[in-house]
Design brief:
The structure holds two protein chains of two kinds. Chain A is of the alpha+beta class. Helix content of chain A is about 30%, strand content about 20%. The chains are: A alpha+beta, B mainly beta.
Amino acid sequence: MTLFDKIMALYPELTQQDFMDTIRLQNDSDGKGDYIAKWEHPTLPRPTEEQLNG
Amino acid sequence: MALTQVETGMIKDAAVTQAKMAANVAGNGPAFSAYPSVGLSLSANTATKVVLPNERFDTASCFDATNSLFRPSVAGYYWVMGLISTGASSWGTNPQLIVMVRKNGSDIAVNQVVPNPQWISATASQLVYMNGTTDYLELYAQASSANSIVQYGGFTEFSAFLARAA
């Protein structure tokens, strides 16, 4: 399951537009995988590692 | 004795005008073109750095092929272009491909296109100032599909050249 899938499972109300405006998922192709580069959603809090990996 | 040679140091800077240049004289600042060697899978809605290990040319050895970034050694204004071509079996409910050129980690040129039906190419270009020491450029791609692949073999390219010295 990708990071995007995990976030959508936590917050199914998010839309694709959110991932262009207030949330940025990123992968620097350095072997470290996907990560949250920016989380500025006005109402939903940034998910914790426990939530993402739970 | 007739004067046959003039050292360039004797010429005032202001006297070296464009009109004095021959038609075959052009700037020789840094320029590069790089491309991927394999397809790059993208996670859905995740900005992913495009890996560019191959160089068509790199005139001043300013492109770091290991880290896929361009860090020019001459300060000035650079024209940069990123071309991304992707394919996917499906693009999701709101299909899109985004190509991003980034300077020092921040977007400076972005283009968003709608794939139709499975393949799409997009470019993002910009004239950008580079300080000649620490500034660097990278190419990123983001797609709506969970199964999109950045294409190689000439379909994806990253290039830049010095348009005007600082």
